[in-house]
Amino acid sequence: MRTVIVFFAGNEVGGAASHLRTWAEGLAEARTQYQYRFVSLGDGPLASALERTGGSLTKVTGGFRAVIDALAQIIRQERAWLLHSHGPRMNILAAYAAKRQQIPWTATIHSNPLYDFLGHPLKSFLFPKLHLWHLRQASGLFVVQPTLGDILPCKTILEVPNAIFLTPPARSRHEYRAFWHNQLRLPTSTRFMGVAARLDPVKNLDVLIQSVAKIPDPDVHLCIAGDGRERATLEALADRLGVRERIHFLGFLASVEEFYGALDVHVLPSKSEGAPTSVLEAGFYGAANVGSDIPALRRMLLDGEAGEMVPVGDVQALASAVHRLFRDDALRDHYVQVFREQVLPLYSRDRMIAAYERGYTVLEEDAVRTGKIVPLENRTEWLRE
After folding, report:
1. Closest by alpha carbon to 70, among 96, 89, 105?
2. pLDDT above 50 for 54
3. Could you tell me if 169 and 255 are in contact, meaning their C-beta atoms sit under 8 angstroms apart?
4. 10 Å Cβ neighbour count for 27?
5. Quick count: other Cβ atoms within 10 Å of Cβ 151?
6. Which of 1, 4, 81, 288 could cysteine-pair with 332, CB 3.0–4.6 Å?
7. Does residue 351 surpass a pLDDT of 80?
8. Residue 341 gets which letter from DSSP?
9. What is the tally of structural domains in the chain?
10. pLDDT at residue 231 is higher than 60
11. In DSSP terms, which residues pair with 157 in a beta bridge?
12. How many CB atoms lie within 10 A of CB 147?
């Protein structure tokens, strides 16, 4: 059985982490044609989550050269035929390790590389260019939504759906709202809109906070789950706009069920997205979605059939869409029903596993055709140049 090395950052907590965790959990129960070895750079929430799946996990540490050396050693020990990385920094490290061992390398692109370092002037100028230059060396690239392939310097683009696997809620939506009313010491008349995201400029959370000031219903409060370098700036903005008492920064939450279960409306006003799991999770737990009109969200919300779409950065349009949903329970319920029936089935972990294995077959056939490897039935080793 051919071995794939999957390389990721152990401290990842964003959408890529949800993607990897769902994938690893699915692999633990599925029959596959490939053998997977997960390699974590350092420790952290994602490394711990993958350890709990019972799969093979190795942790590596150290600086740039030490990590490349460790990856190369694992490739040799496992006689791996493919290295598969996730995340800009991991992709750069993987490119060097794969070149050293002369094996194919691929990566999953979870978001637009041009937006990966917004808010850091020097990094945003240098790192996207460096990342894209290394991606040219990939044998092929997986994307979580097709339009990402348009900006990638690689001929072989393979689509893989993001996925979620969630259990039905343990309590009713009324009980979840009551929980947050109590936690935040709010009257029972309070209704919640919210978002779970890293506090990063690409998420446009300043636009979301500005929209709260334009929603006339004082009983509508915004809950923001997640953390990041923009938190202080966003809190200061809420103070300046006079809406600080209606905006609640909850920090990182280990359980999304209690959060999404309390929301009437989930809002993601991002400048760019891949295939955000937050939209899938919110819809699963019964919140109506509002998203910025970008390719990823347009696709997930079925061009407005499964949620509201608003122009990127348009504060008034966002406020109007949210206000409309809070006033129209039937419309909100309609969006949730369409989302559950037509969207969620497209993002199952079985579809994710199948898409990856189809993609690996394409990459393997390309490698055989170009003479980098020979078929397994003839020889299991790589041909060295």
Report:
1. 96
2. yes
3. no
4. 22
5. 12
6. 288
7. yes
8. I
9. 2
10. yes
11. 141
12. 14
Is the domain of 357 the same as that of 281? no
Residue range(s) defining the domain that contains residue 72 = 2-164+348-369
Residues 248, 156, single domain; the answer is no
pLDDT score at 384? 41
Q: What pLDDT is attached to residue 369?
A: 86
Does residue 81 lie within any of the structural domains?
yes
* E-only strand ranges, the chain: 2-9, 34-41, 57-60, 82-86, 105-109, 140-143, 157-159, 191-196, 220-225, 247-251, 265-268, 288-292, 308-310
CATH code where residue 57 lies: 3.40.50.2000
Q: Is residue 317 part of a domain?
A: yes
Q: Return the structure tokens found at 381.
A: 């080793």
Which pLDDT tens digit goes with each residue over 147-195? 999 999 998 999 999 999 988 999 999 999 999 999 999 999 999 999 9
Note the pTM of the prediction, 2 decimals: 0.88
Backbone angles phi, psi at 143, to 5 degrees: -130, 145
Say yes or no: 332 and 363 in one domain: no
Same domain as 182, residue 119: no
3-state SS class at 38: strand
Question: Would you say 273 and 110 are in contact if contact means Cβ atoms under 8 Å apart?
Answer: no
- Give pLDDT tens digits for 215-228: 999 999 999 999 99
What whole-number percentage of the chain has pLDDT above 90? 84
Evaluate whether residue 383 is within a structural domain: no
